Every structure is written in C-alpha cells, then in structure tokens.
C-alpha cells in the first residue's frame, strides 16, 4: 500500500508542544501514519541554534520516544553546509521512488515566504505541501503571481495527498498552540516554569545539561 509519508523539518531548539500537537492532530485529520521529524543543522534563513546538533537530536528522540507516529531523520544534522529543503526533498524522492505519496509539513507563516526559498519551484515536483493554519496570518500571498501559483496547486481534498505522489498544497485546520522556542528559551533564562510547554523528558534533559541559561 502506498502510505502517505510526511516530513516535518525545523530547528527544534528546543522541540516543544507547539511542534508536536498540531502535527498529531493533522495526522488524525488526514490519515497520516508516519511523520518523519528532520532537525536542520545550519538553517539558511534564520539565526543559528543555541543547542548543538547532538543536543537537539537527543531532545527530539526524548520527545517522540512514546509517540509511534514520529520517527527521526538525521540527514540534515550530518550535513556541514546549509540545509535547503529543495535538495533534501529531491534526495528523499529519489530514495522513495516516483510513485510514493510524499508531503512536507510547514506552518502558514512559512507558506507566505515560500517563494523566497531556494529553488522553491522544484519542491512540488517532489512532494505535496501540507500547511498548518495559524491564526492572524493572511491566506493570500503577497503578489498575484505567487497567489496564482498557490491557487493552481491548492486542493481541499485530503485524498489527493494519498493518491497523487506530489504537487498539491493542502491547508489543514490544526489547533494552534501559542508556544515558540524563543518564548521557552526566554522563560528558562529567567528560571520560569515551562512544564506546560514541552514534554517533561525534554525539560529534564535541558536542566541536566544547563541549556538556555
């Protein structure tokens, strides 16, 4: 059976409920049986992570240890150069073959800047895009050409994600958790409680290793 696989990338510095819970809800909504979490090594378009690659990998492993939906992919962590999604998805497609349904999960904020991504126009050749909605972000792209690109690939039918190998954009109504890694790092620095923001196993690891102090 051609089961839809989805890749979920990020810095995960640290991984928290704002990453995990919307994706778990998404999996229930559209029938996803496997989500591959892929931490970036050197994110090209944002500040460098505070925790090392090894620490961020360990935190993701702890966070997903009791969640069979998730698996960890270390390929970008092993790369010394910037991680470009387009290259990663092309490599993933080559591994999985031409017919398997593949998807890449992003937040709505990322969709709005998507046309600025490295070789963004190749990404839909290799995977679908699943966009987790976020309150307060517009649903329209900045210019007409990008809006047309969005509309040309948009589907409202989740079945398309399972039956086609790539090429569709699906806007998912996932719950929103007002949590960010920045907020967590700031609270930890001030010694404030973060129990409700991330798994206890991850918080224990952060405390044991004196991270974000």
Automatic annotation (TrEMBL):
<comment type="pathway">
    <text>Cofactor biosynthesis; NAD(+) biosynthesis; deamido-NAD(+) from nicotinate D-ribonucleotide: step 1/1.</text>
</comment>
<keyword id="KW-0662">Pyridine nucleotide biosynthesis</keyword>
<keyword id="KW-0520">NAD</keyword>
<keyword id="KW-0808">Transferase</keyword>
<keyword id="KW-0548">Nucleotidyltransferase</keyword>
<dbReference type="GO" id="GO:0005524">
    <property type="term" value="F:ATP binding"/>
</dbReference>
<keyword id="KW-0547">Nucleotide-binding</keyword>
<dbReference type="InterPro" id="IPR004821">
    <property type="entry name" value="Cyt_trans-like"/>
</dbReference>
<comment type="similarity">
    <text>Belongs to the NadD family.</text>
</comment>
<dbReference type="InterPro" id="IPR005248">
    <property type="entry name" value="NadD/NMNAT"/>
</dbReference>
<dbReference type="Pfam" id="PF01467">
    <property type="entry name" value="CTP_transf_like"/>
</dbReference>
<protein>
    <recommendedName>
        <fullName>Probable nicotinate-nucleotide adenylyltransferase</fullName>
        <ecNumber>2.7.7.18</ecNumber>
    </recommendedName>
</protein>
<keyword id="KW-0067">ATP-binding</keyword>
<comment type="function">
    <text>Catalyzes the reversible adenylation of nicotinate mononucleotide (NaMN) to nicotinic acid adenine dinucleotide (NaAD).</text>
</comment>
<dbReference type="InterPro" id="IPR014729">
    <property type="entry name" value="Rossmann-like_a/b/a_fold"/>
</dbReference>
<feature type="domain" description="Cytidyltransferase-like">
    <location>
        <begin position="7"/>
        <end position="187"/>
    </location>
</feature>
<dbReference type="GO" id="GO:0009435">
    <property type="term" value="P:NAD+ biosynthetic process"/>
</dbReference>
<dbReference type="GO" id="GO:0004515">
    <property type="term" value="F:nicotinate-nucleotide adenylyltransferase activity"/>
</dbReference>
């Amino acid at each position: 059976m051609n089961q839809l696989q989805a890749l979920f990338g990020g810095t995960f510095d640290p991984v928290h409920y704002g990453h995990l819970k919307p994706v778990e809800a998404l999996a229930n909504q559209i029938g996803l049986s496997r989500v591959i979490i892929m931490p970036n090594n050197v994110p090209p378009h944002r500040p460098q992570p505070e925790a090392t690659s090894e620490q961020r990998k360990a935190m993701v492993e702890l966070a997903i240890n009791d969640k069979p939906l998730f698996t960890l992919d270390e390929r970008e962590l092993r790369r010394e150069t910037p991680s470009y999604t387009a290259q990663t998805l092309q490599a993933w497609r080559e591994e999985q073959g031409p017919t398997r349904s593949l998807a890449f999960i992003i937040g709505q904020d990322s969709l709005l800047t998507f046309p600025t991504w490295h070789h963004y126009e190749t990404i839909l050749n290799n995977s679908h895009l699943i966009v987790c909605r976020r309150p307060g972000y517009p649903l329209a792209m900045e210019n007409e050409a990008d809006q047309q690109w969005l509309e040309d690939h948009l589907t409202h039918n989740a079945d398309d994600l399972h039956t086609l190998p790539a090429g569709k954009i699906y806007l998912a109504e996932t719950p929103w958790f007002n949590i960010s890694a920045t907020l967590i790092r700031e609270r930890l620095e001030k010694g404030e409680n973060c129990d409700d923001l991330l798994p206890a196993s991850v918080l224990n690891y952060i405390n044991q290793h004196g991270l974000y102090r």
